[in-house]
Sequence to fold (365 residues):
Amino acid sequence: MKQYSIDKTYSLLRNRMEDYIKTNYLGKNDVLRAMCKDILADSLCQIPYIEANPEYVSVKNGISENTVLTYEKPSLVAMCEKKLKVIDTPYVHQIKALEEYHNGKDLFVATGTGSGKTECFMWPMISSIMNERSNNPDSWSVRGVRALILYPMNALVSDQLSRLRKMIGDENGEFHKICDELRADARYPQFGMYTGRTPYPGENNEKRNKELASTLDKGLVKIDLAAKESLIDDGKYPSKSDLEAFIASVREGKHFTDKRDAEMITRQEIINNCPDILVTNYSMLQYMLIRPIEQPIWNSTKEWLDADRSNKILFIIDEAHMYKGAAGGEVALLIRRFMHKLGIDRSRLRFILTSASVPKGKKKM
Fold:
């Protein structure tokens, strides 16, 4: 494996770059080559530095044998057994996040890159939704946004969507089996991404329906098996129970969401059905709060909040360090507008903020 060492890779890349410069810019001019020898040696590239990530402390059987967690265990332990992005040897800070959320606290998780920050809000979010599904059927029967995940940019939204597909929208339907084992007579949790990339803006349109159906058919259905499996492995394939049937319904102007679907992939679907988990960015959330076309989403959410006074929306802000200065002020006002739209106060919201870029010892961003 020596040929793949860091030093060997660095030397190979550096030598190739030096040879390229000599060949294309210095030619066979020996005098010029000699004059540039030291310059190339000193300024072509820096020597490599290796950064070692800290080893985070894990807890064996951290979920299944935890004495603080109660309602979280059935769903998370089952997801662990089925390998749905839950592990029973979690890091200490992941367990602490679950415990503090269980105790009714808001969370700010500041920990290093690669330390499982996403699980610090995904596990509380999913276990909370599953608890409502199993133990509060009257509330669960009402559609509404139970969790809103806010991101600063679309690239991060897409990454989060991939994680959700692997957790609650897996190809083999293992998550739905867990749902049926816990309570068989209730609908399945569903999620949706609502950003500028979500097709398509505006009212239902016959021409655009046909264009969208053709795009989905060509890019997702009429591809070879290897390509499809690759998309599924990367979490880039929609979590639809029958994608071909959905495409056919879109072609006919009906953005139909099957009860077995884990994901809604068009704006019309999300507006008509209201997902339990909404993933968006702050720019789109602003538009959604003021445009008439998205009002059914908030009307449904109001009904869910009114169905049970104990219902609270989980507001998740990832990459929280990016919201400082003017941007932070804008997002703070956006959250206030969000609360005003739903007619709620701070007591009906719960927050989980995460970041890998808050320096140690800092109390404020």
